[in-house]
């Protein structure tokens, strides 16, 4: 039979171990959340009359690294491409009986959920409709204000604000991009 004193110590050790395990798991999750710099792109693919185009292949190509993610539209023409690394992208859409669609100049920023609707033109798939002008990226799923500050703007700050760079580095969602 185990004495009450030993039983109390065993319970304390077990409780401390469980608390330590929970804290370690929580810290690992928080560290992962701080290092991820992703954005989502979603939208609707329709024809010129506004009818949904189901089964269209949507590709997001990161232009500086040729990283590619693919999605297929559902029965209502909707698509979602989640967790894309931030950076410049090209949107490509293909569907049977329609001209290929390509839009460059899409720049994804941290935590942004971009809505990018596409209107396909009827025609041979060998033809491509290329959109070069970038549309404004509008946050459609969250209400909030954010801004990406590039290195040039930080370097042009007065000397007193130079400590801002150090503060931003330790901020939860700060990503420093150098070119």
Describe this structure in words.
- With 179 residues, the protein is of the alpha/beta class.
- It has 3 domains: 1-35; 38-131, Immunoglobulin-like, CATH 2.60.40; 149-179, no CATH class.
- The protein has 3 helices and 9 strands; from the N terminus they run αβββββββββαα.
- It has helices at residues 4-35, 151-155, 163-169; strands at 38-47, 57-62, 67-72, 78-85, 87-94, 100-108, 113-115, 118-120, 128-131.
- The strands form 2 sheets. The chain has a 5-stranded mixed β-sheet, with no helix packed on it.
- A hairpin with a 5-residue loop joins β5 and β6.
- It is elongated.
- It starts with a helix and ends in a 10-residue tail after the last helix.
- The model has no long low-confidence stretch (mean pLDDT 78).
- Read across the widest sheet, the strand sequence of neighbours is 3-2-5-6-9
Major beta-sheet overview: 5 strands, mixed
* Oligomeric state of the chains present here: single chain
Helix content: 10-25%
């Amino acid at each position: 039979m185990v004495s009450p004193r030993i039983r109390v110590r065993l319970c304390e050790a077990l409780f401390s171990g469980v608390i330590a395990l929970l804290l370690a798991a929580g810290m690992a999750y928080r560290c992962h959340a701080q290092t991820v710099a992703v954005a989502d792109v979603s939208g609707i693919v329709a024809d010129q009359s506004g009818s949904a185009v189901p089964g269209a292949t949507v590709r997001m190509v990161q232009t500086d690294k040729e990283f590619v993610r693919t999605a297929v539209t559902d029965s209502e023409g909707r698509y979602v491409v989640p967790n894309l690394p931030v950076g410049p992208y090209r949107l490509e859409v293909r569907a049977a009986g329609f001209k290929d669609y390509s839009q460059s100049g899409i720049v994804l920023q941290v935590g942004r959920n971009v809505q990018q609707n596409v209107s396909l033109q009827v025609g041979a798939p060998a033809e491509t409709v290329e959109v070069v002008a970038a549309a404004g990226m509008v946050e459609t799923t969250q209400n909030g204000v954010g801004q990406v500050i590039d290195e040039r703007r930080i370097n042009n700050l007065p000397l007193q604000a130079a400590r801002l760079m150090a503060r931003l580095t330790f901020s939860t969602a700060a990503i420093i991009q150098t070119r």
